Amino acid sequence: MPLHFSVEELANRRQRACAEMKRRGLDALLLFRQESMYYLTGYDTFGYVYFHCLVLTADGRMVLLTRAPDLRQARYTSVIEDIRIWVDREGANPAEELKSILAEAGLAGQRLGVEYDAYGLTAAVGKKLDASLEGFATLEDASDLVSRLRLVKSPAEIAYVRKAAELADVAWDEAVRLAAPGVDEAEILAAMHGAIFRGGGDDPANEFIIGSGPGALMCRYFTGRRKLDPEDNLTLEFAGTYRHYHSCLFRTLRIGTPPQRQRDLYAVACEALMACEETLRPGKTVGEVFEAHARTLDRAGLQAHRLNACGYSLGTTFAPNWMDWPMIYAGNPIVLEPGMVFFLHMVIFDSDAGIPASVGRTSLVTEIGAEPLSRADLDLVVK
């Protein structure tokens, strides 16, 4: 059984979840987020794209309802013992089978927390769930319950995040080594992924962002590769991933002589990152971190060029993206604590001039402040 945490740590996490359920007056949780299942039991799969639900009762009992391909997967990767299978057939409604499981567990008429905010729980599936359980039990959105528990990392989790940061650094080393006029983006992308896999890492929860030419002003992945020009920009946002834990980096890399405007913008981006990292300390709020970012860019006259968020929490996440809760935006009241991990990205795109100037890295919140996890310096790399 390839558990990546001790049985004791997994049990402690479930105990904390059960305690929070009792505090909220919930009798059980219907878990649909793969992150939650992995965090509480070790269960590792991409089968969440179909209906599957882990029932965790307030007294600690667990039942997994899933499809046949995940029977062995759950046995092999998790501590879940009671695994039920719903059968694929025309008109199948696994929500009705879930209702039978809940009735068997004595949960009729009880208060059930539901992870409605889950990629696997589509609107269509959610409607079936609500219809099947209408009048059977009281449903309450508890999407944040396990996410809040996951926010502060254990020593074992932090070790995985540090390993992920090492993998992100070696991927960046490969990008710097290869970037040059005439080099295909695909070569750079392949080398970055290869470095991570050779280091024992995993597929990330979403695609690496890579773009040059006009694509250097994008911060989302898109299909289609190009070769670098003698005067060009390369934007990279990527993550090292280890045991599904992520550590991200964001960089602008310049091919040829950078214009002064780009040097000036990049200097502001680094100044904003320093201001955010200075604010990323226990007792501050996530919203205050955003204010440090906004204040720095606005002072430089760049309000029109900044985004409305400057990062997010990182941890164990599954496709389709590695962005975890909470997001760093204005007014976010979440209070920072030691053991939290955040990716801070200062994204400056001057679309009028066609100039990108972005920088970002992942930091651990410690007792005394932010600890950047990357060994790479922040200098603008020019090739």
Structure description:
- This protein is α+β, with helices and mostly antiparallel strands.
- The protein folds into 2 domains: about 5-150, Creatinase/prolidase N-terminal domain (Creatine Amidinohydrolase, Chain A, domain 1); about 150-380, Creatinase/methionine aminopeptidase superfamily (Creatine Amidinohydrolase, Alpha-Beta Complex).
- It contains 10 helices and 17 strands.
- It has helices at about 5-25, 35-40, 70-75, 95-105, 125-135, 145-150, 155-180, 185-200, 260-280, 285-300; strands at about 30, 55, 60-65, 85, 110-115, 140, 210, 230-240, 245-255, 310-315, 325, 340-345, 350, 355, 360-365, 370, 380.
- The strands form 3 sheets. Strands 7, 8, 9, 10, 11, 12, 15, 16 and 17 form a 9-stranded mixed beta sheet that branches. Strands 4-3-2-1-5-6 form a 6-stranded mixed beta sheet, with helices on both faces.
- A hairpin with a 2-residue loop joins strand 15 and strand 16 (about 370).
- Helix 7 runs antiparallel to helix 8 (about 185-200) and helix 9 runs antiparallel to helix 10.
- The radius of gyration is 23 Å and the shape is elongated.
- The N and C termini lie far apart (about 45 Å).
- The mean pLDDT is about 95.
